[in-house]
Amino acid sequence: MRQGYHATSIDDIARALGSTKGRVYHHFASKIDLFFAVHREGMKRLFDAVVPVVQKEDTGQSTLETLEAMLQAHALALLEHHTYESVVVQGVHLHRFGAMTPEERQTLDELIASRDAFESLFKGQLARLKKAGFLRHASVSVAAKTLLGGIQWSLVWYRPDQDTSPASRESLAREMVNVLMHGLVR
């Protein structure tokens, strides 16, 4: 979080833990392996937040209410797990621009596939909305990327160290989703 992936060394990580490099290497063979583990945990936390909302759809919520609840769960997960989710975003950048070994590339491809599966939850909901006549003639893919991007931008501007209240994070997540779902105009 402080220096980014490339500028952070195992020495930096060990110092932050109050540990030795050897202890870090005992658990992770390399810095990229540690990065992958954090990335996996970040994706797990996103799925853990959103999948229960998707599964509730069978209880009679309208598709619009479900989409709004999915976005709310996603926004809150980003705010509450800011550091993990920032690593997920760094993973996307590494995937697009990073030079790595074929084995590392394969692992990162698997992580990106997980991210794509997460996005597909929203694409599926948007496709149901479009089929039900709730969406304009928008591309489901573009709509999903725009909604998720709007929420994920909070990883850039949100400062978790200045906001320790769960209630204020919930309120902020609601406000973000409200703008995305209902816009700014009365």
Describe this protein with a few key phrases.
186 residues; mainly alpha; Tetracycline Repressor, domain 2; 9 helices; 74% helix; KstR2_TetR_C; Tet_transcr_reg_TetR-rel_C_sf; transcription regulation; transcription; repressor
Description:
The chain has 186 residues and is mostly helical. It has a single domain (29-182), classed as Tetracycline Repressor, domain 2 (Orthogonal Bundle). It is 74% helix and 0% strand. The chain is built from nine helices and no strands. The longest helix has 30 residues, at 102-131. The termini are far apart. 22% of the residues are buried. The model has no long low-confidence stretch (mean pLDDT 88). Pfam families: TetR_C_24 (PF17932), TetR_N (PF00440). It comes from Orrella marina. This is TetR/AcrR family transcriptional regulator. InterPro entries: DNA-bd_HTH_TetR-type_CS (IPR023772), Homeodomain-like_sf (IPR009057), HTH-type_TetR-like_transc_reg (IPR050109), HTH_TetR (IPR001647), KstR2_TetR_C (IPR041490), Tet_transcr_reg_TetR-rel_C_sf (IPR036271). GO terms for molecular function: DNA-binding transcription factor activity; transcription cis-regulatory region binding.
